[in-house]
Amino acid sequence: MNPRKVAITGGARGIGRATAAIFQAVGADVAIGDLDGDHCGEVAAQLGSSVTGLPLDVTDPASFADFLDAARVAMGGLDVLVNNAGIMPTGAFLDEDEAMTDRLIAINLRGVITGTRLAANRFRQQGQGGSIVNVASLAGLFGAPAIATYTATKAAVVTLTESLAKEFSGSGIHVCVVLPGVVRTELSGGAHYPRWMERVAAVEPDDVAHAIRAAVTVERTRVSVPRSLETVVAVRNLLPNSLSWRLDRLVGLDSAFTQADPAARARYHQRLSGSLDDAV
């Protein structure tokens, strides 16, 4: 598939912004949506005239529908939806506020479900198919302390996507999940990994953006970034608990966020609490 009309949620920062830039660079029209509509418009203007910034609250089905409809009008159609919006507060599970749990589920999972259904219905109405890319996380394949609810939502996105890839087979609607490792954005800032592990697992937003474009172009169902890390995770999941947990300690998964730098995560947590504009 050669995508020409691309809508991206959480498009004003991090992976979303990088993905918009990648698609724009190859000649696609792009619509980015973000809760901070003003900032989203500023980012769109910076990226170029073929990028449109629109307000979007992925937890509100009406807002999501309006975003997709406005994107179709601005671009003259819709070929791809990238469900990228997501949040990752860190901290002990028992200390997690119920409101934050609800917000995690509403953004990371319900938002993906809503966007996928809305986009798929529009693709079906257009009669020409389309692609939906759901951004999950490799952490959704194994789990990690201090991000329990986050990993649960990402695991759900993986199985949702793989289920729909089968359900939509033959319909012209392609569904893919992209699983990044540790992406160097504000979302994962302050993570505590051994230096050697960071060299193996950490990627830039541009790396994920290129993987998203490649997944759409060749219509793959599942892509990991970096690709080699999924093999490591698969082997880890075959081990008995005693060995897999020992491996977790070796690579720093047991302490990545239990010992995260609080100063490095403070601004992100302020944004999530509403004292700063929303971050994805």
Short description:
It contains 10 helices and 9 strands. It has 280 residues and is of the alpha/beta class. Helix 1 crosses helix 7 and helix 4 packs parallel to helix 5.
Describe it for me?
- The protein is α/β, with parallel strands linked by helices and 280 residues long.
- The protein is 51% helix and 15% strand.
- The protein contains 10 helices and 9 strands.
- It has helices spanning 14-25, 37-47, 61-75, 98-126, 148-167, 195-201, 205-218, 227-238, 241-251, 262-273, and strands at residues 5-9, 29-34, 51-55, 80-83, 130-135, 173-180, 182-183, 202-203, 222-225.
- The protein has a 7-stranded parallel β-sheet, with helices on both faces. The protein has a two-stranded parallel ribbon with strand order 7-8.
- Strand 4, helix 4 and strand 5 form a beta-alpha-beta unit.
- Helix 1 (14-25) crosses helix 7 (205-218) and helix 3 crosses helix 4.
- The longest helix has 29 residues, at 98-126.
- The chain is globular.
- It starts with a strand and ends in a 7-residue tail after the last helix.
- Mean pLDDT is 91; it is low at 275-280.
Helix content range: 40-55%
Rg result: 18 Å
Q: What fraction of residues sit in β-strands?
A: 15-25%
Tally of separate helices: 10
Described by the principal axes of the CA atoms, the overall outline is globular
